[in-house]
From TrEMBL:
Name of the protein this chain belongs to: Carbamoyltransferase C-terminal domain-containing protein
Ranges of residues in domain Carbamoyltransferase: 26-336
Organism: Streptomyces luomodiensis
Recorded family membership: Belongs to the NodU/CmcH family.
SUPFAM superfamilies recorded: Actin-like ATPase domain
Highest taxon of source: Bacteria
Matches recorded under Pfam families: Carbam_trans_C (PF16861), Carbam_trans_N (PF02543)
Span of domain Carbamoyltransferase C-terminal: 393-564
InterPro entries, alphabetized: ATPase_NBD, Carbam_trans_C, Carbam_trans_C_sf, Carbtransf_dom, NodU/CmcH_Carbamoyltrnsfr
């Protein structure tokens, strides 16, 4: 049986469904292909359309899944969507109220229309099946865990009307034990407080990284009156009241881009402590109530790796599985797995071996052909077949920061060694350089260590609770004797979000780390996602090269090749054709003093605008109509122009092509 799982809204870049679909509506679009219960391909739409957290319909992702599996659209038996049909229609209906000129279609009609457009096969209404959101999360995490039975707990913003759901899972199926209403959502609590800290939606992980710098006791009394821990694992949470309290108490919200204050760290610490207290309360109850020895965690809050590490320390369960794609993208696979279980009577496929479920980068010949179009920007060195890991390990050991890409991409938000930036964990300067010069992100944010599985217990306190740590889902303590040796990956509180690398499931990354160990006696490398501040994790060779050229990475290692920026590559920007991203929007904004500010951004809510000069704005307007360059448009080849062009490229609102 072949089922295509879908998450995402029904909009496209052209605004065909609606002109301004909010970013929260069915966010983190993805497609997954499930064959006889096993996920064989899965990819987020953002990796292909290059818009972070894209909620546009995953047309490209669906096509990619079919291509990866060698499956024709005609071979797909059915399609599973990651929310219930009534809820999907309700959400779509709310959007139609904003746009009275848009024809009204149901979620089922929109799904069949979009699928037909994307895959070239006429999908019928009966081909589409809807799965309750928390069921999709829970069944996917249980199926991929490989456990015979487990307690599956989903914690997120909300499902249909739930903020937390608890399921009893076994090979015969799953039974809902309890749901906690979304008005008490822990995910919404985190979301409500992001603006106080100068962050926005999808920045929850920043709060988690900031919390260890703070004292939770400073602001705990701002939370305590507004939540309660009840009998039988129940709780209440009034996020709105917490917000009102902080405003009345005079907490001045930090503005985006302003320095982090101690009060911001203290508030983040109190928020994290509150989340962990409530989570421990409800998990403790269900562990006692059911006697379950195994736990599966999913939902967006399951990406809070600090809280996951606490779950291991609490010792409530013998074994814990945190799904590598616990956010809504992962529900594409879960919905498809759940649909197949409905048909087969609960039968599951094989557990998840690794998270490398996305499109392949290509072998050395494919990469060589792609590199040919980039010779104006990069220098290329051939690497002997099979020597890429050794080459990269040597570069990292010598202090270089390396972009590392090969094979099929990861499914989920963590780079696990197929699309990674790697650096020396022994040098605190590695952390600071990657934060400031490559990621251009806040300096307080930690980086993860990737460690040889054989050495993990020597370096880290892995607790008595068993867990699969190869998906970078849990924060654990670095052993005291290793903290000074690993300053680039040890957080301020002595912890680290560890990734164990197994030779059997991640062989090339294992070989690389082992090469670094042979050179340094340290079986650990710094591992972070291969991208810059403005883009999702790189997917293709072209994405790799854009990231290399527009950051201070020392080199990128791809199959058969080491690639470096050409000295003086910036001059090429003057004569290269400017190509606008399909979602780029140009705006002229009148200010109060009568002047005009010209800005460029993506046509997505919350997109950060880039201010440009009138001449550069004119160039972009011309480029929107057809190929042109700064030189052809009459702009000078001075530093100001080159700086402006490079800035736009860094923000990914434009690309450059050399004829």
């Amino acid at each position: 049986m072949i089922t295509l799982g879908i998450t995402g809204s029904f909009a496209d870049l052209a605004g065909t469904f609606m002109p301004d679909v909010p970013e929260w509506l069915f966010h983190d679009s993805a497609a997954a292909l499930v064959v006889d219960g096993t996920v064989v391909a899965a990819v987020e739409e953002e990796r292909l359309n290059r818009l972070k957290h894209s909620n546009l319909f995953p047309a490209s992702a669906a096509k990619a899944c079919l291509e990866l599996a060698g499956v024709r659209a005609q071979d797909v038996d059915d399609v599973a969507f990651f929310f219930g049909e009534d809820y999907a229609d309700l959400e779509v209906g709310h959007e139609y109220l904003k746009f009275p000129d848009v024809p009204v279609l149901s979620a089922r009609e929109l799904l069949t229309t979009r699928l037909t457009e994307a895959l070239g096969r006429e999908f019928q209404h009966g081909d589409v099946h809807f799965t309750k959101h928390h069921r999709a999360h829970a069944f996917g995490s249980f199926a991929d865990s490989g456990f015979d039975s487990a307690l599956a707990v989903v914690i997120d913003g909300n499902g249909e009307a739930e903020g937390v759901s608890v399921f009893d899972c076994a090979d015969g199926g799953m039974k809902l034990l309890h749901s906690y209403p979304d008005q008490h959502s822990l995910g919404h609590l985190y979301l409500a407080l992001l603006p106080f800290l100068g962050f926005r939606r999808f920045d929850e992980y920043k709060v988690m990284g900031l919390a260890p710098y703070g004292d939770p006791s400073v602001y705990r009394d701002c939370f305590r009156p507004y939540y309660a821990l009840l009998d039988d694992g129940g709780y209440t949470m009034n996020s709105g009241a917490v917000v009102e309290h902080l405003l009345h108490a005079g907490f001045a919200p930090r503005r985006r881009g302003e320095p982090i204050r101690q009060q911001d760290s203290d508030l983040a610490a109190a928020l994290q402590a509150t989340l962990e207290e409530v989570e421990r309360h409800l998990l403790s109850h269900w562990a006692r109530q059911t006697g379950a020895g195994r736990l599966c965690l999913s939902g967006g809050v399951a990406h809070n790796s600090t809280a996951n590490g606490r779950v291991l320390q609490w010792g409530l369960f013998d074994e814990v599985f945190v799904h590598p794609a616990s956010h809504d993208a992962g529900a594409s696979a879960g919905a498809a797995q759940h649909r197949q279980a409905e048909v087969t009577g609960g039968r599951r496929g094989k557990g998840l071996v690794n998270a490398f479920l996305g499109p392949d980068l290509g072998g050395r010949d494919v990469v060589r052909a792609e590199l040919a179009g980039w010779r104006a920007f990069v220098d290329v060195e051939e690497i002997a077949p099979g020597e890429e890991a050794r080459y990269a390990a040597s570069a990292v050991a010598s202090g270089q920061v390396v972009g590392w890409a090969h094979g099929r991409s990861e499914f989920g938000p963590r780079a696990l060694g197929h699309r990674s930036i790697l650096a020396d964990p022994r040098d605190a300067g590695s952390r600071d350089r990657v934060n400031a010069m490559i990621k251009k992100r806040e300096g307080f944010r930690p980086f993860a260590p990737a460690v040889l599985a054989e050495s993990a217990r020597e370096v880290f306190d892995l607790t008595a609770t068993k867990a699969r740590l190869d998906f970078m889902g849990c924060v654990v303590d670095v052993r005291p004797e290793w903290r000074e040796k690993l300053p680039a990956v040890t957080h301020v509180d002595g912890s680290a979000r560890v990734q164990t690398v197994h030779r059997e499931t991640n062989p090339v990354m294992w070989e690389l780390i082992d090469g670094f160990r042979a050179a340094t006696d340290v079986p650990v490398v710094l591992n972070t996602s291969f991208n810059n501040f403005a883009e999702p994790i790189v997917q293709s060779v072209g994405d790799v090269l854009r990231c290399l050229v527009t950051t201070t990475l020392d080199l990128a290692v791809v199959p058969g090749h080491a690639v470096r920026r050409k000295p003086g590559f910036r001059a090429v920007l003057h004569t290269a054709d400017v190509v606008l991203h399909p979602a780029t929007r140009l705006r002229e904004v009148a200010t109060a003093d009568g002047s005009v500010t010209r800005v460029v951004s993506f046509r997505t809510q919350g997109a950060k605008p880039v201010a440009v000069s009138e001449p550069v704005f004119g160039l972009l307007r011309a480029a929107a109509s057809g190929p042109t360059s700064a030189a052809a448009h009459g702009l000078p080849a001075d530093e100001e122009t080159l700086d402006a062009l490079l800035l736009l490229w860094e923000h990914r609102v434009v690309d450059f092509r050399v004829r």
